[in-house]
Amino acid sequence: MRRRPGFFWSKPASPGETVYFRCTDSGPGLSPEGRARAFERFWRAEASRGRSLGGSGLGLPIVRAIARAHGGEALILPDSPGLAVEIRLPSRDLSLSEQDLDDR
């Protein structure tokens, strides 16, 4: 089965379950060392690239920090073609109660 690059989202059946967000590409992916270091601030897979040709090395560390701030995690999926980053967040019931509406 061939996977196309893109974005995947999974809606949980009930609060307390995990919501999965997955983003994939069809690039060369990362080596095992690269996967281990990808969430380090300012680390870039291609050291030869200047910042004018690539990022600052802050994207994935920011993604992980935001996920953790919401009780979740971000990780790189192993053994996938290209790069696959998955964010896992706990589901919460966000429906407003009558009390919430009165407080507005």
Helix content: 10-25%
Got a strand count? 4
* Backbone shape: globular
Largest sheet: 4 strands, antiparallel
Number of helices: 3
**Radius of gyration of CA atoms, rounded to a whole number:** 17 Å
Uncertain runs are: none
Give the terminus-to-terminus CA distance. Answer: 50 Å
Q: For the largest beta sheet, what order do the strands appear in spatially? A: 1-2-4-3
Per DSSP, what share of the residues sits in E-state strands of 2 or more residues?
Answer: 15-25%
Q: How do the helices and strands line up, and which of them pair or pack?
A:
Layout: E1 6-10, E2 18-24, H1 32-37, H2 59-69, E3 73-76, E4 84-90, H3 98-102
Antiparallel strand pairs: 1-2, 2-4, 3-4
Please describe what this structure looks like.
With 104 residues, the chain is α+β, with helices and mostly antiparallel strands. Helices cover 21% and strands 22% of the residues. The model has no long low-confidence stretch (mean pLDDT 79).
Q: How would you describe this structure in keywords?
A:
single chain, 104 residues, four-stranded antiparallel sheet, alpha+beta, globular
Question: What's this entry about, in short?
Answer:
The chain has 104 residues and is of the alpha+beta class.
